[in-house]
Amino acid sequence: MFENLTDRFDGIFGRLRGRGRLNEDDVDEALREIRLALLEADVNLDVVKNLVGRIRERAVGADLSKALNPAQQVVKIVLEELTASLGGQAMSLTYASKPPTVVLMAGLQGAGKTTNSAKLASWFKRQGRSPLLVGADLQRPAAVEQLRTLGSQISVPVFSEPSDPVEVARRSIEEASRTGRDVVIVDTAGRLAIDDELMAEVGRISGAVNPHYTFLVIDAMTGQDAVNTAAAFNETLELDGVILTKLDGDARGGAALSVKEVVGKPIAFASIGEKLDEFETFHPDRLASRILGMGDVETLIEKAEQVFEKEQAEQAASRLLDGTFTLEDFLEQMQQVKKMGPLGNLVGMMPGIPKEARGMEIDERRLARVEGMIRSMTPTERAQPELIDSSRRQRIAAGSGMQPSDVKSLLDQFGQMRKMMKQFAGFGTKKQSPKNRRGNNPKRGKKGGNRTGGGRTTPKGPAEVPKTPLSLPGLDADGLSDFGLR
Amino acid sequence: MLFIAIIAVAALVLVVASFVVLRRSDDTLTVDRIEPSDVVTVDDVAPKVQPVEEREEPRPTFADRLGTARQALGGLLGGVFSGRIEPATWDALEEALIRADVGVTTSLDVIETVRSQASDRDVTDSADLRELVKTELVKRLEGFDRSLHSGSADGPAVWLFVGVNGVGKTTTIGKLARRQRDQGQSVLLAAGDTFRAAAAEQLTMWAERSDVPIVRGGEGADPSSVVFDAVESANARKVDLVLADTAGRLQNKTNLMEELSKVRRVAEKGAGSVTETLLVLDATTGQNGLSQAKVFAEAVDVTGVVLTKLDGSAKGGIVVAIHCELGVPVKLVGLGEGINDLVEFDPTAFVDALMG
Fold first, then answer.
1. Could you tell me if the ipTM is greater than 0.85?
2. Smallest Cβ distance to B312: which of A193, A343, A364?
């Protein structure tokens, strides 16, 4: 419903264009939407009130900037406030001068303490440390067994004994010193913040190991109660930070914001998948746009940068906009996109995607089928899909184990996309002047050379690559603010 | 930097579009196959296997157990419902409902109804208003079939437990095994969570506590085949009820949701029939709970909700929306870690606790 707050604000602020300042009434209307968006994202009510107050103060009477329209300006303020509230910088860990560095994990039942203890151990290992996992959850059946299994998966030793959690924790430090482990991660049993007895017990565990870091493990799906939990744990344990789990779900994760506001401790790590390496230091700015339901462009770009060759991407982008993008290009790009991770996750990060598409995960097998069909085409066909008649369709379908109608719909979709992209380029950008265009890439030129029998060179020939950065509608200077990039 | 993203996006656009088209042809391609699981062991747990000491306490009622939690919390609404109704009373009421995770939309809807009732009946005292709100909430939760069905006599009944990670599926099954056994049913557990480390061990310990048999597969085995084998085994031993565990999965992971649909289909391939599919929902869950209920209901036709961890400070208000919007009732409530702490849902007690 709030997938694009900017769009909704556009309606509210539409009539404002040409006026110099935001007045109270305009802002209040927008603030109601913001309040609703934050509450739907499970941000705690008190935190919402504070935030809305701060946003109001900044927005009312703010000079309207020339570069941004009023809607974008308010969204910018909201994003800035959210990011500031979540803590501007990623948390950095330091190690004890006299090892081991002790980390205590605490939280409610089912938040993900055991799994994330192992994930954290794996993370420390990647930092060149040698962690020891400690199974002090003697309450839940097979919790220690689970930790041992996870430990063996990441080759990290696990210490536990069937005595009592405080004793296990105390002995684990001796064990670490004896075996030369420099980081100790103590997994504790899940407990309710209102259970005085168990809260006292975790206090004793903390007293026994004197942790350098105490992390509260919080589920990203947690509702309004997150603050009560965090406050109670903070009172008993003096938290140093929070680990936010299950962030790969479709919850907006407002709980993180609430916890940060209430206990004032940063979110140190986020768990973003079921695999043990899907765990990373937390980026506040990214969660801010997610809470508002605005996509996560920065992560998308970061992932893209890891896999795409800049030159290659430039060429592909320019061909896409010229309308000379071929199926061969598409196949190549698809390989790159695949390297970026599950397609569904990527789609979820893109701004402006309809809600239905956002949550959906895409079956990689379907991707394989598209790939299969393209691979069953000759290079000529890939370059000139219009050559594909019914007998060629038949052959391609047979080659890829699909129906001719599937091939047809693939080609139709591809054609539509090409047309769409061309139009996109047409109304968005100023025409690139020819002198700004670079010559062809020799490698490509050769590859795309005289392959066709039809007397026409393939469109893979001269690639036109603009020197100036491409800009598209909605992604130009103004639009950037939509994504919190400015 | 930006155009790199654009190309990714463009490619994604097409790829996504292609899937939509291919989805139809895809359906026909899915074939259910029951693969033999790697290892299937049937443990008949003899009583001599270290019976875990359980405090045998009388089964608590919903109201009993919530009483303690409520005292610990204090009344959220204490100050609100005294004196005359003022505009601020309505705001405070809305806030109280939002704090209980009822959600903005449902809260406003409830308040709207109550507001018109109050004006119809000339209610001016806020203490009466409290009763109106409670009555309205209870009304929205009433009229659902909350019984757990065991089906006909032919073949075992299967209760399938589904939900996101960490909500308490395995624990709920452990508690329910004892409860159903105590009610005179023969029970068998199916360790369908073959993904999480030591999930089967955890369920085995519960099986020992309740002294019921369990069927488990190797780690990473196909959950459908484990459940299928469990149902076959139950049928051979004339067991009445199979409680089938599944791995936790986030509802936006389509592949895993498809896997779950398959588990449900395969569970009925043999002699058994699935008579309950229970969504286990953590009471601390916020607005995402509605999305969980929707998506799981689509995938496996959920017949009821088990609301766990309601003994904490969270109120589980999202189930009001789940009742109203999806028509799926809460059937059981988890109120603690003891084997007896799983009780039937009682709308009145729930609303009392919700309203502090």
1. no
2. A193
